[in-house]
Amino acid sequence: xxxxxxxxDVEKGEDxxxxxxxxxxxxxxxxxxxxxxxxxxxxxxxxxKEHLWMVYLSTFVAVCGSFxxxxxxxxxxxxxxxxxxxxxxxxxxxxxxxxxxxFGAMIGAITSGPIADFIGRKGAMRVxxxxxxAGWLAIYFAEGALALDIxxxxxxxxxxxxxxxxxxxxxxxxPKNLRGALTTLNQLMICTGVSVAFIIGTVLTWRVxxxxxxxxxxxxxxxxxxxxxxxxxxxxxxREKEFEAALQRLRGKDADxxxxxxxxxxxxxxxxxxxxxxxxxxxxxRYLPSVIIGVGLMFFQQFGGINGICFYVSNIFESAGxxxxxGTITYAILQVIVTAMGAALIDRAGRKPLLLVSASGLVLSCxxxxxxxxxxxxxxxxxxxPALAVTGILLYIGSFSVGMGAVxxxxxxxxxxxxxKGVAGSLATLMNWFGAWAISYTFNYLxxxxxxxxxIIYGVINALAIVFVVKVVPETKGRTLEQIQATINx
Length: 490
Fold this sequence. Notes:
The chain is mainly α. The chain has 24 helices and no strands. The relative contact order is 0.14. Residues 1-47 have low confidence and may be disordered.
């Protein structure tokens, strides 16, 4: 096992030697041998500044996939009234349109691991973009519920694949010291995509809004010609020459990649000796802790109610008696700002503190929103109710964005032992989309059953999330993946 663990941190794209050099003392004695070139510290630092532009460009192209994901998710909120009127849809038909997206994403999530392993990370992003583009066109030309739903299913499938492959691709190309921040960009761009859809959706017709979804697809498809494939995937499929060329492009033409290349090769050899993981292997005792952490975080992220609130935010504002376009735009901008703050903090404050602050804020905001709807239904404090609802929703999205939104995806890309990463990552992503579907589908029904009851349920689940994070989730900041494994299995 020990041998396997040493190689573990290689997959996620993390071995920049200068990071090892900078932190040998913090990481305890066992890593000291890695820090063998401490004399070259300054020059390594210099070259990393000049040559990281390819890492940044590759990350930018990949996160346009995340932006596309956001465009898909943000589409149904601003268009609800117009689509229902134009195409004469019932509430039930529109609920299907809203939630079939997440159903498509579940299928995307299940197939994303195998696709990314089979045709590469770039190939998976191409497939994803193609599905999204086809879906948007179907929505644009739709004359009835069927074409709408088919288009929505296709964009959902593309989203599901993006949701897995983007963080994995970024983590595989990023130097270790940038891993958290660059992986969080994924979530930031999702929020930006949602926000842009919300904001321009207040001015554009729903058909034109569908066409805007084609823009990120085009950027991804074009951008993929300019960037290298993940070196780790190339090494894994035995393409020596391409692997070294890709790594050299990412680290700069003058960078010395021999050490990193050797580590990746070692790791790939270890990988070849490990058994191919099947879905049932995830329930073995040695893998179960990491699976519980990865899947559990996704469970709490979704069942805390984010998708119900996100998809129907304009309706929540209206039913609270507040201008929906002002509310939606405030929500959108706030989401982007807070997610950016989280991205800045994740490699400094750590994963766990962000999760705890986030979940606590979610409990509080569920209480506020719940109270507001309680007052409204019992005709108490009618002046205060709308203010409470709006405060609750904005605090909710702020709290979610600072931790629960991004951190589970970052932890997912760090937590799994390398040989189960494809299968376990697909399972965690599937859990996420199943939760998203379940919540967005049931939200309208729950709200008509009891508006404040809905928020009480979400509040309880978020309170359980706090317990889960305290008891189960390890801190992964600034550790090699081998140390993360040791902590989990202790």
